[in-house]
Specification:
The complex is a heterodimer of chains A (202) and B (159). By secondary structure, chain A is of the alpha/beta class. Chain A is 39% helix and 12% strand. Chain A is built from eight helices and six strands; from the N terminus they run H-H-E-E-E-H-E-H-H-E-H-H-E-H. Chain A has helices spanning 3-9, 18-31, 68-78, 91-101, 120-129, 139-145, 152-160, 187-196; strands spanning 37-42, 49-53, 58-63, 83-85, 137-138, 173-174. Chain A has a four-stranded mixed sheet with strand order 3-2-1-4, with helices on both faces. A two-stranded parallel sheet of chain A has the order 5-6. Chain A is elongated. Chain B has a single domain (8-157), classed as Arc Repressor Mutant, subunit A (Orthogonal Bundle), CATH 1.10.10.10. Chain B has nine helices and no strands. In chain B, helix 1 packs antiparallel against helix 2 (29-46) and helix 6 packs across helix 9 (139-157). Classes of the chains: A alpha/beta (202), B mainly alpha (159). Chain A binds chain B through residues 4-5, 7-18, 20-22, 24-25, 28-29, 32, 34-35, 39, 69, 72-73, 75-77, 80-85, and chain B through 4-10, 12, 16-17, 20-21, 24-25, 29, 32-33, 36-37, 40-41, 44-45, 47-48, 97-100, 103-104, 107, 118, 122-123, 125, 150, 153-154, 157-158.
Chain lengths: 202, 159
């Protein structure tokens, strides 16, 4: 190696402030309307939640069981690859969820983006979104609201694939005989949410 | 079905640190951060229009190389009177950060491809084959750019 090459190789390692980069990048991307999907995590009594938001509204809420890489791939394929971690853009949704878990909020005002919901599930989940805090419904009833009174099982499947749990309150749908039914986040979480709303005895 | 592109956040997570180092060597520590943001913003703008997801790393380096060139040109064009209020580290790489003021000033003035090739070869200590992959050019072209860059640097520094 020549002296010149050695001097070039002797440049010190650098460090980039990742937090600062992420904040600045997310802000500038959002201002330039280049951010299609923003996401950020939030702590909840049900474990960490990851909230995904588009310009239309909350599009996806994931429990910690779902690996973040798989989630991001899913969002990139089904919505847009322009995805960034952007706490600012998800702030409104995260604050409402925090207030809900703190018992200070019973309904969500943030808009919902229904883009990930298709076909029969649309009717089922829109009907589910109308079940008020503290009330429950049955699989048969939401199937009926979706226009197919005999499709209770299909309604169960649609609820199981709800991309926006909590905000679209699929935990409020139970078996007609009062049995808990299923929940994509696990029955412990379903019980917790129903107790929080006073629908199950503490 | 369109092209499969990874979520953009992955590109930031995987390549921010190395692109930053590339830019510190190319434009100096003072402007590297802003150049890095500009690089990612340009990439994000063009991202959905990419026709394939191969060698995204080389694609990001190419954008960073362009941003570095734009910046060097902008600073170079600035009239002298405008430089009065500019802190000295903006005009040259601070010696304490990089060791050799004159040398790094000369690196900044290299033609874009030569500058990128020299930085990949020596700052990152890459073999020519790897330099070629990162730049998306042939190995022969990588060698030519490195040796042309070195020749120019030698003239500047050993003058």
């Amino acid at each position: 190696m020549t002296d010149l090459e050695q001097r070039l190789a002797g440049s010190p390692a650098t460090t980039v402030d990742r937090g600062q980069l992420a904040t600045a990048l997310a802000r500038r991307a959002s201002e330039a309307r280049l951010l299609d999907v923003a996401f950020a995590a939030l702590d909840s009594p049900l474990g960490e939640l990851t909230v995904f938001v588009t310009r239309r509204g909350v599009v996806r809420i994931a429990y910690a069981d779902e690996p973040i890489d798989a989630l991001l791939d899913e969002m990139a394929a089904s919505l847009s690859p322009r995805i960034l971690r952007a706490p600012g853009s998800t702030d409104a949704a995260r604050r409402e969820l925090e207030a809900y878990f703190a018992g200070e909020r019973q309904a969500f005002d943030v808009p919902v983006d229904w883009s990930l919901i298709h076909g029969f599930a649309t009717g089922v989940l829109r009907a589910t979104a109308r079940i008020p805090f503290g009330r429950t419904s049955s699989y048969g009833q939401v199937a009926m609201s979706a226009g197919s009174p005999r499709a209770a099982r299909a309604a169960g499947n649609a609820l199981g694939s709800n991309p926006i749990p909590i905000v679209v309150p699929c935990h409020r749908v139970l078996h007609a005989d009062g049995g808990l039914g299923g929940y994509s986040g696990g029955l412990d979480r379903k019980r917790f949410l129903l107790r929080l709303e006073g629908s199950l005895p503490g | 079905m369109g092209v499969h592109l990874p979520p953009f956040q992955h590109l930031v997570d995987e390549h921010a640190a190395e692109l930053h180092r590339f830019l510190v060597a190319s434009v100096g520590p003072h402007d590297a951060e802003d150049c890095l943001q500009e690089t990612f913003l340009s990439a994000l703008r063009a991202y959905p229009r990419l026709r394939h997801g191969d060698n995204l790393r080389a694609w990001l380096y190419l954008i960073a190389q362009r941003k570095a060139t734009d910046l060097v040109r902008r600073l170079g064009r600035r009239p002298v009177s405008d430089l009065d209020g500019v802190p000295p580290e903006r005009l040259s790489v601070p010696p304490q950060a990089i060791g050799d003021d004159g040398l790094w000033m000369a690196v900044r003035q290299l033609p874009a491809k030569q500058r990128a090739a020299v930085v990949h070869r020596f700052v990152f200590d890459l073999a020519y084959r790897e330099v070629a992959v990162r730049m998306g050019i042939s190995e022969v072209a990588a060698r030519q750019n490195v040796s042309a860059g070195l020749r120019r640097l030698r003239m500047e520094v050993e003058r």
